[in-house]
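dude i think i finally got it to work??
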Amino acid sequence: QAYRLGGYIMEGYNEQLDEYLNMDKTARQWLDDLEAREKEETGIKTLKIHYNKVFGYYIEVSKSFTDKDPYRYQRKQTLVNGERYTTDELKEIEEKVLSASENATAIENKIFANLKEICFAELSKLQSTARALANIDAILSFANVSVSNRYTKPVITPKTKCVKIKNGRHPVVERLVDSGSYVPNDTVLDGDENRTMVITGPNMAGKSTYMR
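look at this
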């Protein structure tokens, strides 16, 4: 259920979602514009819009300018040095800001639910595409490794009666040891003169690596 926390839809996919996700930036611009308009309309140049957790957003006017407060201002709190008000527009902004996270999550969940329905409707095609991509990915990986490590494709035919390897290397051990310290080896087993090999040497000399 982690997807219910939101945050998984790319910006630009849904305009309404983007508005909610960018609410901090958007709200600051709304508040700056509102504050500028209120200063212009009321003539109160010291008017400020603030926020706290107890009263939310409010317009603060100092005591010396309260006689200019318009009737549309709704008193929210009286202070020693001034008054705090709200307006219908400020309430609307506050509601949008405080509900932005919840609304964004709801939209993302709806988008995700619609996406699931689309995927289920095309499930067989998606599975076929996934299998094809998996095969391509595996083949490409083999090709990249072969080229970067200079691997040679063996020649195997029904008439092959021998194992003949020139400069054979162990693909894993070669990558684990220091560069240039791995020594390639030849191998010939032809069923005639070279039917058996006796491999000797001290521990950690590379006998098992050669045999593999």
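The first strand starts at residue 48 and ends at 52.
im so relieved honestly
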